UniProtKB/TrEMBL annotation:
This is Mercuric transport protein MerT. GO terms for cellular component: plasma membrane. It comes from Sphingomonas lenta. Involved in mercury resistance. Probably transfers a mercuric ion from the periplasmic Hg(2+)-binding protein MerP to the cytoplasmic mercuric reductase MerA. Pfam families: MerT. Keywords: Cell inner membrane, Cell membrane, Membrane, Mercuric resistance, Mercury, Metal-binding, Transmembrane, Transmembrane helix, Transport. The chain crosses the membrane at residues 36-59, 80-100. The lineage of its organism: Bacteria, Pseudomonadati, Pseudomonadota, Alphaproteobacteria, Sphingomonadales.
Amino acid sequence: MGLGAVTAAAACCVLPLALASLGVGAGLAGSFVGLASIRAPLLVLSAVALVVAWAMWWRKRETACAPGDACAVDVRSRRIVGLLIAATVLVGLAAIWGSIEPILMNWVL
């Protein structure tokens, strides 16, 4: 769920910039222009997916298990929390991208 949120958020804003900085040609990066028109729905979808992912993680944390049961295995690995945090940061970055892009472009150029 969190990975889907990251992908949706990165599709309209961060992904084209990252591909261009990696040297991917303008022809491929230009194919993402159509996603700009659906930026708001993608951001909403990403935010909803993140809320659901965090809620699922929190709910797993709250379930009680007797020691030794199969459910006693800690499913909340550091990888899951790390991915959720990364997804949250990327969705937040995508949400404020319109505000920080001019600043970054002035700094880079």
